[in-house]
Amino acid sequence: MSKIKDFQEYVSKSQVWRSIFRVGVPTTDRKRALAVLGNVFLHLHPVKVRTSGIRLKYTWCMGGISFFLFLVLSLTGLLLMFYYRPTGEYAYPDIVDLGEQVSLGLMRELHRWAAHLMVITVWLHMFRVFMTGSYKPPREFNWGVGVLLLIFTLLLSFTGYLLPWDQLAIWAITVGGNMARATPFAGYEGPGASLLSIGDIRLVHAGDDARFALLGGRFVGTNALLRFYVLHCVGIPIVAGALMAVHFWRVRKDGGISGPL
Amino acid sequence: MEAVKGFINWISDPRWLFLLSVILFFFMFRLRVLWTVKFGIVALIASLAFFGLSMLDKNFRIISTTPDNVPIVGLIFLMAFFTWLSLKQAFDNDDRLRIGQPPKERTERFEKVMVWPDLVYTEFIATVLLGAVLVIWSIVLKAPLEQPSNPTFSPPVMKAPWYFLGLQEMLVYYDPWLAGVVLPGLIIVGLMAIPYIDRNPRGSGYYTFAERKYEIMVFMFGFMILWLLLIVIGTFLRGPNWNFFGPYETWDVAKVTPMVNVNLSEYIWVKILGVGLPNQWFGAKYMGILLRELFGFILVIGYFTALPPVLANRSRLFNGFYKTLGGARYHVMMFLLLAMMTLPIKMILRWTIDLKYIVSIPEWFFNI
Fold first, then answer.
1. Same domain flag for B232 and B96
2. Are B160 and A181 within 8 A, CB to CB?
3. Same domain? B217 vs B283
């Protein structure tokens, strides 16, 4: 036994160990505070929080779960990108291979179910924040950021829906894309679009309207696939990530995790 | 058994389901007994029993075990649970407030706890549990993959992703420019405007119903009835060609439902005045069209511009809102509220008098 203890002490006193773990086992409140402050991930948290802030019955943990799911989706999405090519000829076979050829091919399942779950947890988070009145001053702005994050969650899910490139995908996106066709003024079947014309020449037509901008074509084709892929993997995650940074920062700055003021 | 199924199929028709849900919605805030642990357990057992028994039915089993629908089955149970959890705490707090005690959350206000270990461990356990749930879910249920995409063959059931099915259901009652563009935009704007419209300082940071009755009722009406209920209808009760099918009904591609919807202009000019549509005797250019839709325009413009001031003057409730919110906030709130209420209004008009559009100008893609 003493040999093991000696070894433990040898390891925990070594230069390598102490360079990584500054504080040691946090046994006192001082060390616990330092453990949170000294860790780049944990320092998203304050050192102390309201009791209500850690009570599951009060917070439902939904914001934290949503963030965790975002991390799961980033990781599994990254792994999926190794195998998936967003072109008309490869997209579908690559998805088939992901299930049949890749060892431990669970990544697509994890990615899809985590994505569905994230939509639900984000809604529940919003519901909890509303029911506790946590959008009230001084948190008005952060509620707005949260609404934007909700929209970006839905857009991430929507752009990802097309990528399997099967019948379910293209016709679901067709239904969604057809709505853009009816955008007032900007869609060629939207009200007011016909007013935007010079003589008989229409400025807004099927070849340059809002749906065309979304799909890169008049229907859901390979251009749409590439567009949705880029938005799904790069564009929206960057914006959502930036907004998440603002969201978490403002939680701290606007009085900490919600509780009675 | 068949009679029960037939009855449930009949009552699942969006008309009855919607009306029933609205009635239940407004009753549930009055029945304190619903928000107790005892009732919660009874409701959970009853709904699980209903769900379990229904799984014996082939059609119900197909629709509720379709991989992409499983999260929505989960959503129904989760929403019911969290609605119960939040309103239970709200009514518990209201009981405390009534006898002069502070809400439960306020008693905890000044005692803070260390993030390490209390919060960090909770997060760690939540992460491990959720990770396990996800892995098991992914092993049990394969992600769906249908036939390769084929732009020349459109399947009989075309549905948007499930979280947009509320919008697709709205397409039954609105043109796409409203259901797909304007109303979603107003939902976003309306949600973001909530903290700036709601000036009630009470109920910040704790569950309560009594202190913020109207906020909670309006929000929950929009969220649960106009959003989630429509998603549930769109997922489970809409089949080929967006026709209605009961939960125990087979999705028959050949089901035909008569389209007998009539525009307001036809009601007034043809059925009531009996003179025919003005664009037929006035020419189909601007004057004829505008005259044809005159009554529709009066209705819509009157609804949005006349109703807020009239309500502020005549209704004690809205007069109270006007006084506490001030003019600008009151009118923004009323616009958003009235826009939201157009959906149930249009639904009821469709179900009672087969009204298609209030203003109908297909020439300009402008239908309301």
1. yes
2. no
3. no
Chain A hits for B146, Cβ within 8 Å:
166-168
Chain A residues near residue B289 by CB distance under 8 angstroms: none
pLDDT tier, A220 (very low <50, low <70, confident <90, very high otherwise): very high
Q: What is the pLDDT of residues A165-206, one digit of tens each?
A: 999 999 999 988 888 899 999 988 888 888 888 888 888 888
Q: Which residue range forms the structural domain that includes residue B271?
A: 264-367
Give A-chain residues touching B357 at CB under 8 angstroms. none
User: Rounded to two decimals, what is the model's pTM?
Assistant: 0.94
Which of A110, A174, A182 comes nearest B134 by C-beta? Answer: A110
B97 and B8 in a common domain: yes
ipTM: 0.94
A25: containing domain: 1-48
- My answer on whether B91 and B208 are in the same domain is yes
Together in a domain, B357 and B235: no
Q: Is residue B238 part of a domain?
A: yes
Q: What is the 3-class SS of chain B, one letter each residue?
A: CHHHHHHHHHHCCHHHHHHHHHHHHHHHCCCHHHHCHHHHHHHHHHHHHHHHHHCCCHHHHHHHHCHHHHHHHHHHHHHHHHHHHHHHHHHHHHHHHHCCCCCHHHHCCCCEEEHHHHHHHHHHHHHHHHHHHHHHHHHHCCCCCCCECCCCCCCCCCCCCHHHHHHHHHCCCCCHHHHHHHHHHHHHHHHHHHHHHCCCCCCCCCCCCHHHHHHHHHHHHHHHHHHHHHHHHHHHCECHHHCECCCCCCCCCCCCCCCCCECHHHHHHHHHCCCCCHHHHHCCCHHHHHHHCHHHHHHHHHHHHCHHHHHHHHCHHHHHHHHHHCHHHHHHHHHHHHHHHHHHHHHHHHHHHCECCCCEEHHHCEEC
Q: Same structural domain for residues A78 and A163? A: yes
Are B208 and A133 a contacting pair at CB < 8 A? yes
